[in-house]
Amino acid sequence: MIIVFVCTLPYPSYTARECPAKGSLAVPCTQASGKGFEPVEFSAPARVNLIGEHTDYTGGLVLPMAIPFRSIATIQPSDAGIYELSSENFPSTRTLQSTQGLVPVHEWSDYPVGVLRELLSLGVKPPPFRLHLRGNVPLGAGLSSSASIEVATALAILALADASLSPQAIALLCRRAENNFVGSPCGIMDQFVITAAQANHALLLNTRDLSCELLPMDQDRLAGTRIVIANSTVKHSIAGGEYGLRRREVEIGQSALRARFPELRDLGEATLEQLAVCQSKISPEAFRRCRHIISENGRVRAAREAMLVGDPIELGRLMTQSHISQRDDFECSVKEIDFLVEQALSLPGCFGARLTGGGFGGCTVNLVAVEDAERFAFTLKDAYRRRFLLEAPVYICEAVDGAVRQNASTRPDRR
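Now predict its structure.
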C-alpha cells in the first residue's frame, strides 16, 4: 500500500517532511464480513502542548507534539450481533443492541460511542463489534486521554467497516464527537496532532484553516534539551465548569471585536490594539481572557522562530511568559501548578515552564537541558511531595509519531 501525505504549509518549510493531514489516505482495513477477522489493534498517542493555550477554538495558533503514552483500541466482530464497548481503566461495559438512537450516558463510553455516531452519520456502517480500550495515558492530566481514545476508536471502526478517511477528516470527526456527543467544547488541536504528528517534531497548527508545519525538536542547541512533563495529579474535567465559563467569556469578547472590526474573522486575526478599543464594551474578565489569547498567538509565532534556529533560551522564555498570562489573564492555573512552575524555574537546566492543557490542574511542561533532566525530575518531585504531600509523576519525553503514521503498516492479521 502506498501512502501519500500532502499538506499546504503556511510558511516555507525548513525540511522536506510535510504535515500528514490533508492528503488522501486509506486507513488500513479489512473485510467487513467478520469471518476470519482476528482482533486487531490501533494505537493513538497522547499529546502535550508546548505553547498556544486556549487559542484553538478562536482560529489561533497552537504548537503541540505527540508523546509516548498511548490508547489502544482492539476490535473484532461480535458473534452475538451486538455492539460491546469495554475498557481496562473502567469497570462498566456498554452494550448497544443497535446503532439507532445513540445518546450519551455521561461516562467513559460516551467518547467511543460519540465517534461511532459520527461515523454512522457519514455512511460508515460497521458490523456489530466488540471494542476494548486500554492504555497508559494519565487520566485527567490534560494530556488528551479523551482525544487519544477517540482517534484510536475511529481507526479501529474504520478498519472493521472497510472504510477510509483522510487524517484531517478523522481529526474533525473526533472533535465533533467530543463537542456534540460528550458535550465538551474543545477545539481541534488535540485530535489533529494525535492524528498527524511526526516523530522528532512539534506541529504548528493554524486552527482556522488547519494548515500546519512540522518544526524541529532537534535543531542546533534545542537538540540538547528534553521536554519534561510534571503531573500535579490535581484532576479536572473540561466538559463544563470553569473551562466552559472561560470559553463563554472569550466568545463575548470576540463578538465585541467583530462588531467593531467587521473584517476580523476571529481572535486569531485580532491585535491587542484592537482589543483596547473594545475594552469599555466588555467585562474586565472577557478583556483579560481575550488579551491572553491574542498575546499567546504572538508567543507561538515567536516560538516558531526560536525553534527554527534551535534557541532553547528564547523558547523557554516564551513558555514562561505563556504561564504568566494563563495565571493572571486567563486565570486557569491553581496553586499546585504555580508551585511546580516556580520550582522548575529555580532548578539548574530549566529554560522555561508553563501550565499545559485546559487548566485547573493537570500538568506543567518544562524545557530542560538533557544533562539535567533526570536530576530536575527527581528534585521537582521531591519539592512537590514536601509541599503538598502528593506524588507528582514526572515524564521525560520525546516527540513521537501520530496515530495514522504509527498504524500505517497495521494489517488485520497482525496479532
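Residues 150 and 174 are 6 Å apart (CA to CA).
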